[in-house]
Design a protein that fits this description.
By secondary structure, this protein is an alpha+beta fold. It has 7 helices and 22 strands.
Length: 409
């Protein structure tokens, strides 16, 4: 229930999300006893509201009107922005601030980084300077953000952050989907919607604006100007500087007006296609091995008899799960015996099942899979079994499928 200090149970420092000056012990918790129960509670709450809205037919609004779209690439490192006082500013070359490295309360960072930092640190300035010191103009543009990583000027082996960014609106009747290339904070999203709503409304058009985040490309977070001044994690991750939101407000209102007027905008400059030069730091799978005397799929921990509401566990000798991601398939099945025929009851995308994979011996290539099934309250009494399947890799033969079956319970 909110971020608390793991060692004391007391609330974290509000401004910096720290416990005794460090972020590592400040972790947020959901309403349940663990992440599984919390996820279930939150999902059920969202479903209940969604279902109530769906069932409220009196609140329905018919979608009417034309279907249109507009798209433009823009240079977000030098976008001209008109401020409220009439002066002009620009967005900045991409950079990440100190508080980016602090993480958040659902994933704290390491070392001595904290949120809400607006001054640098000589040690970390030296470390980041080994990669590249930001230009004075870049530092001034991003103020009050102290720059940790000057990513907009990192070009090896290719650009670390995009320069040319997608902006797009899809119109379906009165619904305007604002396809934005990043994560807008709640208030930033509200301001973007309000800007487009006011413009479209002034043209006599009905509008229901919807912010569709993380569309087309990813540019981290976008905060309001006020949020940016506090330099918490999201502000430190607003890579194009304090006027990023204002730039998007101007861009999306301009596109909405052009779209409704039938005006065709210049396409802009598309980003370089880097698909063929992508680097991966995930090591490949060389081979799998099963411990002596055991086959792949051998069940080394059998499930026990249980009742509704109980957890049952089975453990198998496995190959590496990245050998085959089992797309449109499943790593596990729970089956019930029905008159001699085994009927599928649950698979790996069911809420009642969990699968844990562990590389038990990296040198020898040995792995184990643990399958856990929480028996639903409405499960029928009967005879059940747990199945795990996958692929193991041999240096000579390549990939070979295997199947493991537990004893019945």
């Amino acid at each position: 229930m909110g971020p608390k200090c793991l060692d004391t149970g007391l609330p974290c420092d509000l401004e910096h999300s720290t416990c005794d000056g460090r972020t590592q012990m400040c972790v947020a918790f959901g309403p349940g006893e663990d992440i599984f129960e919390s996820t279930k509670i939150i999902a059920e709450r969202q479903y209940a509201v969604s279902k109530a809205l769906f069932d409220d037919e009196e609140g329905y609004q018919e979608v009417t009107g034309s279907v249109k779209f507009i798209h433009q690439w823009i240079d977000m490192t030098n976008y001209p922005v008109k401020l409220d006082n009439g002066s002009m500013a620009t967005t900045c070359k991409a950079a990440l601030g100190y508080s980016f490295a602090a993480g958040t309360t659902d994933g704290p960072g390491e070392f001595d980084f904290t949120q809400g930092v607006t001054t640098g640190n000589p040690f970390w300035d030296f470390i980041s300077g080994i990669l590249k010191d930001p230009e004075p103009e870049t530092e001034a543009c991003h103020a009050p953000k102290p720059i940790l990583l000057d990513t907009g000027e990192f070009k090896y082996p290719y650009a670390w952050h995009p320069t040319q960014v997608d902006t797009q609106i899809l119109k379906i009747g009165q619904m305007f989907l604002l396809a934005v290339p990043g994560e807008f904070t709640t208030m930033a999203g509200r301001r973007l919607r309000e800007s487009v709503r006011n413009l479209v409304g002034s043209m006599g058009e009905p509008i229901v604006p919807v912010v569709a985040g993380l569309s087309n490309t990813y540019t981290h977070y976008i905060t309001t100007f006020e949020e940016y001044q506090k330099q918490r994690y999201e502000a430190a991750s607003t890579i194009y500087g304090p006027h990023s939101l204002r730039a998007y407000q101007q861009q999306y209102t301009m596109m909405a007006e052009a779209m409704l007027n039938g005006q065709e905008l210049p396409a802009g400059t598309p980003p370089e296609d880097l698909l063929d030069v992508q680097l991966s730091f995930i090591p490949g799978i060389i081979f799998d091995n099963s411990p002596g005397g055991l086959d792949f799929g051998s069940c080394i921990q059998q499930p026990h008899d249980a009742n509704q509401g109980d957890f049952v566990t089975a453990k198998f000798i496995s190959g590496h799960l990245r050998n085959d991601l089992m797309t449109d398939d499943t790593f596990l099945r729970v089956e019930r015996n029905e008159n001699g025929e085994w009927i599928e009851v649950a698979v790996d995308d069911d809420w009642s099942t969990r699968l844990y994979w562990e590389r038990t011996n990296v040198i020898l290539g040995e792995s184990e899979v643990t399958v856990i099934w929480e028996i639903p309250e409405d499960a029928l009494n009967g005879e059940y079994r747990i199945i795990h399947k996958g692929y193991y890799k041999s240096i000579i033969r390549g990939l070979t499928p295997y199947l493991g079956v537990s004893k019945t319970f």
